[in-house]
Design brief:
Blueprint: H1 2-49, E1 77-80, E2 107-108, H2 118-130, E3 132-135, H3 138-144, E4 149-153, E5 167-172, H4 175-188, E6 203-209, H5 218-221, H6 238-252, H7 255-260, H8 272-284, H9 291-294, H10 298-302, H11 304-311, E7 321-328, E8 330-332, E9 338-340, H12 351-359, H13 386-389, E10 400-402, H14 410-414, E11 422-428, H15 438-459
Parallel strand pairs: 1-2, 1-5, 5-6, 6-7, 7-11, 10-11
Antiparallel strand pairs: 3-4, 8-9
Length: 475
């Protein structure tokens, strides 16, 4: 009887989660389409009144690739979106960063695969900036069964990018890990055709905004299996609904639809034009091919074990400045238990998960890393654990310094910034406060982004050669 009760509760939770997430997704998509249609109608009326008319093939431009080419006089700030995110030009011009990019006149917002792996997104980000055809790497492409080459940028958005013309990177959520892996690839000379000319010094600063630096327990709550290293999903879970939806989306391959939004799996060749109905069955029913069969997508990278695998090969470099804003929407009761704080301020997508993450306990053995404690991972922002967001911790602790609020001396402290150290602050916010809807973030939205842009423009100066040794703090 007890098993039936738990099964019923699990089914009810899955149903509620699916309805809330799908409802919000359709709301965002519908809002974007409505705004775009309204703008087109207004433009048509204005053009009609002047005798111009509207072109029959007018459509939403998904990229405008050459428009943001910069001269390198001032290092640009590159905002990198997280999971289910999008770049400039998608969703009818909706801003993932809620218009924060307007705070500076040299900001780029790349459009990367919203569900592709951290590795694939890091490769896409390089070619978005430098230009050329995206090369996912021969060895990686063979291992995970997808095409080696992706989209082509005829002209990069920052083609002068090099050691003398570095960039500032700001990554939200999974975007923070994309940036870190890209910097490691630059250090390793991992981009064929550049003759080892790339360097970690191409990156002037890295800012993690609610960044998934050490994974998230939510990945397991949503369906990833902890017992196999976070590589596969349970048969009935929220992520399975995501899998079915994204596969069908790519199989239908409707250009007008993908112009608005794209999960980023084109290099897996799942289009109906290529694989037909039989190919759809292989991907969707038999799980014989595609990103979900091979594990080359974002969720395995967001488990604690997946983050540890990435972190094991990614360093904190002594030539780069590192900042982190860790969000938290939980508080401690008198007994020490973590509970969601200010529940009316938590985004509807996140409230249930915030509560679940407070109570979640790692169910498998051995633990995901040496020294793991469930209580360390209780505080969260509804999507990521605050413990994970401050700085890289697993499998090795990286150098870090906590910074107080600016009004309490944080600004004075920042004037003595040193590269190669993670300066982190904990802000009271949920995971959605700094994206999509600026009004939800309120005053804190501007305070945080003003602080980020201020760091990039005022505090970060590379005026001396870096020390010869790097990082993690082995102690």
């Amino acid at each position: 009887m007890r098993n039936w009760v738990w099964a019923a509760l699990g089914a009810a939770e899955l149903l509620v989660s699916a309805v809330v997430h799908l409802g919000y997704a359709f709301y965002i998509f519908g809002t974007a389409v409505a705004a775009d249609v309204t703008a087109s109608l207004v433009k048509g009326l204005v053009a009609g009144g002047s005798g111009g008319g509207v072109a029959k093939d007018a459509a939403v431009d998904g990229e405008a690739e050459a428009a943001a080419v910069l001269d390198g006089a001032v290092p640009p700030i590159v905002l990198v979106h997280g999971i289910f995110g999008f770049g400039k030009g998608r969703l009818g011009g909706l801003s993932y960063f809620a218009g924060a990019e307007e705070k500076d006149d040299r900001v780029l917002v790349p459009d990367l695969g919203s569900l592709t792996s951290v590795h694939d997104r890091a490769r896409e980000l390089f070619y978005y900036l430098k230009g050329g055809q995206v090369d996912y790497g021969e060895e990686h492409s063979k291992e995970y069964g997808h095409a080696r080459f992706g989209r082509t940028y005829e002209r990069g958005h920052y083609p002068v990018w090099d050691e003398d013309h570095p960039v500032h990177f700001v990554g939200h959520s999974a975007g923070a890990q994309v940036i870190r892996l890209l910097q490691q690839m630059l250090h390793d000379g991992a981009f064929e055709g550049y003759g080892g000319a790339t360097s970690e010094r191409w990156v002037l600063s890295v800012t993690s905004l609610s960044g998934a630096l050490n994974g998230s327990t939510r990945a397991y709550i949503d369906g990833m299996r902890p017992e196999d290293g976070g590589r596969t999903m349970r048969p009935a879970c929220l992520l399975q609904i995501c899998r079915v939806g994204s596969v069908l989306y790519h199989w239908l391959d409707l250009p007008w639809l993908k112009r608005y939004y794209d999960f980023g799996f084109d290099h897996f060749g799942m289009s109906r034009r290529l694989v037909g109905a039989a190919g759809l069955a292989d991907v969707l029913l038999r799980n014989k091919r595609g990103p979900f069969a091979t594990g080359d997508w974002i969720l395995p990278d967001l488990t604690i074990q997946g983050a540890a695998r990435i972190n094991a090969g990614v360093r904190t470099f002594p030539c780069t400045f590192y900042f982190s804003y860790a969000s938290r929407r939980t508080a401690r009761t008198r007994s020490g238990a973590a509970v969601p704080s200010r529940p009316l301020r938590i985004h509807p997508l996140l409230f249930l998960r915030a509560l679940q993450m407070c109570r979640w306990r790692y169910p498998a053995a051995p633990p995901p890393y040496e020294g793991y404690r469930d209580e360390d991972w209780e505080d969260n922002d509804g999507a990521l654990n605050t413990f994970s967001m401050t700085h890289p911790r697993i499998p090795v602790e990286h150098p870090s310094v906590p910074v107080e609020e600016e009004g309490d001396g944080g600004a004075d402290r920042c004037r003595a910034l040193r590269p190669g150290v993670w300066y982190y602050r904990i802000v009271e916010a949920d995971h959605m406060d700094f994206v999509i809807n600026r009004r939800r973030g309120g005053v804190q939205f501007d305070l945080v982004y003003d602080s980020i842009f201020h760091n990039c423009r005022r505090h970060v100066v590379r005026n001396a050669p870096p020390p010869t040794q790097t990082l993690p703090d082995q102690s």
